[in-house]
Specification:
The complex is a heterodimer. By secondary structure, chain A is mostly beta strands. Chain A is built from 1 helix and 17 strands. Chain A starts with 14 loop residues before the first strand and ends with a strand. Chains A and B meet through strand 2, strand 3, strand 8 and strand 9 of A and strand 1 and helix 2 of B.
């Protein structure tokens, strides 16, 4: 099924997600964390460069690419990049607005678009048994996806309620997309409601990536985009 | 004009910088090598079992605007693209579409940052200056020397065997001359393709020749005429062995004779170094060490003989 990927041309913009070596580390286990950029959950590792990182942390403690699962519980890995600059020809930019559900942006009067983009990635890992009191909470990134249920309590086929917040407020009518490593082509997507909520049916177990993009007009660049992602492993 | 070309890259925005690195180099004799080093695990994920040649679907190479398909070799995350560029080519363009990140391309000592999937601007093709005759001679001289010291333990033991009979100048000179003359003959003949003997025959015989010289040392204390003749024959064998090594290292299309001569000279220098070291190491205790050392060499050589026949 992945061979389909050979036929897919790289898009103008790529997903970014956090991929720990294990989503279910034992207590005390040291886990390497890869920051990946790609498509269809196939990606390249980002070279670790502190100069381009705002925050990279495990349970609010700064990390440099690995963490130790000190205690049982649902842990959060967070990555918030400094803005990157890109320049895109207008046509390519419009194509990518369509792909990411950002049709409300209507660039005009320019042939090249200057854009800054920031990555706001989160990953949920579980040590020990899952329970309902374990909660994902906001890390305080500009754009953030928050799981409103412990995904490690779900079974394949169940829906995960997710909330999207932009600068601490619900972001409405934003496209949220979910994809699974085993079948990355079969995407699940929904638009957020007035409270920034979506429910995404997650059919398969394994690694899931949930993602959303928000964009605002900016200066001196034309736009600033924020790329939220959330990864976890469905039991 | 060249500076301008490179400067234009700096103004382009970039995506995240990944771990993929590429280098491109061009030789004066029209060969190019583009090497891409990337995370083996990621590459395996992308290929997902597809043959490595599939990578060519996302690689583009042009010389003066004309596309060329390179030959591709892949091993453990390193992709090597090779081929011949057209005579007189002034520029090239390259595209690697198998990374989602920004990667580096180092060419002619400069590093450019390129978006995965983007085609580079038209870059000047700068061939490395051709190797001078002296550089080539030095390279093959070194190759010959290191083939004896430190890589050629069997040849070292053979020469030590000669030294263990006697360190008297005349005895040693006669043996070494016979050996050198003989191996120069077969090395030359075999490099010009006039003689061909399979290594499976040559290698065990080389080992056996070492054993013979060592064993004779135990029973004889002086140089007999037949020993000199035998050493000449052994030299012919060793020469065939040297030819095998030199062929593996590769010979330049031009300067063939220079390379051959330099390699041979390197081998001689290696042998002389062994003799000098032997004279320093056991010159004064020659009588004491000759028999036990020869016995040890004989044992090692007999072991090699069996091992090489078995292989």
């Amino acid at each position: 099924m992945r061979l389909l990927f050979l036929l897919i041309l790289p898009l103008a913009a790529h997903d970014m997600w956090i991929e720990p070596a294990s989503f279910r580390p034992q207590e005390g286990q040291i886990v390497n964390v890869k920051l990946k950029v790609g498509e269809q959950l196939i990606g390249d590792v980002i070279a670790y460069d502190p100069a381009r990182i705002h925050r990279f942390e495990f349970n609010a403690t700064p990390i440099h690419g690995r963490f130790r699962a000190e205690s049982a519980g649902l842990h959060r890995i967070g990555y918030f990049s400094k803005p990157n600059d890109v320049e895109l020809p207008l046509e390519k930019f419009k194509q990518y607005l369509g792909e990411e559900g950002l049709e409300f942006i209507r660039p005009a009067g320019k042939t090249t678009i200057k854009e800054n983009f920031s990555r706001c990635a989160k990953s949920l890992v579980l040590t020990g048994p899952a329970n309902a009191s374990q909660r994902d909470t906001a890390l305080g990134f500009p754009l953030e996806l928050i799981a409103e249920k412990n995904p490690y309590l779900l079974t394949p086929g169940a829906s995960l309620p997710v909330r999207l917040v932009y600068r601490d407020r619900p972001l409405t009518n934003a496209l949220v997309v979910a994809l699974n490593r085993a079948a990355p082509g079969e995407k699940v997507s929904a638009r957020t409601d007035k409270l920034g909520r979506v429910r995404l049916p997650l059919k398969a177990s394994g690694l899931w990536l949930i993602k959303a993009v928000h964009m605002i007009p900016s200066d001196p660049a034309d736009y600033h985009s924020y790329w939220a992602s959330l990864t976890f492993e469905l039991p | 004009m060249k500076l301008l070309l490179f400067a234009s890259f700096l103004t382009l925005g970039a995506h995240e910088i990944g771990t993929t690195r590429a280098t491109a180099s061009f030789t004066a004799d029209r060969r190019y090598v583009i090497q891409i080093t990337t995370d083996p695990e990621n590459l395996a994920e992308k290929l997902d079992g597809a043959p490595a040649q599939t990578l060519l679907t996302r690689i583009q190479l042009q010389f003066d605007g004309v596309p060329f398909v390179p030959s591709l070799r892949h091993e453990n995350g390193t992709i090597q693209l090779t081929g011949l560029y057209p005579a007189g080519a002034k520029t090239f363009q390259f595209r690697y579409g198998w990374t989602f990140t920004t990667y580096s391309l180092t060419v002619d000592g400069r590093t450019l940052w390129i978006e995965g999937g983007d085609t580079t601007d038209t870059l000047p093709l700068i061939a490395a200056p051709a190797e001078t005759a002296w550089q080539l001679a030095a390279r093959y001289l070194g190759l010959g020397f290191t083939h004896i010291l430190p890589h050629g333990l069997d040849h070292v033991l053979f020469v030590l065997g000669l030294c263990l009979l006697s360190l008297r100048t005349r005895t040693l000179l006669l043996q070494v001359t016979a050996f050198t003359l003989a191996h120069s003959i077969t090395l030359g003949l075999s490099m010009y393709g006039l003689v061909r003997v399979s290594p499976s025959v040559v290698e065990p015989l080389i080992a056996l020749s070492i054993a013979y010289v060592a064993i004779e040392n135990i029973f004889l204390r002086e140089l007999k005429p037949w020993r000199l003749a035998l050493i000449f024959v052994f030299g012919l064998l060793h020469g065939l062995g040297f030819a095998g090594v030199l062929s593996e290292a590769g010979m330049p299309a031009s300067s063939f004779f220079t390379a051959l001569l330099s390699f041979n000279a390197g081998v001689e220098a290696g042998q002389l170094a062994v003799i000098a070291l032997a004279a320093v190491a056991f010159g004064r205790f020659h009588a004491k060490v000759a028999t036990p050392a020869s016995a040890a060499i004989a044992l090692a050589a007999l072991y090699w003989t069996i091992e090489r026949i078995a292989a």
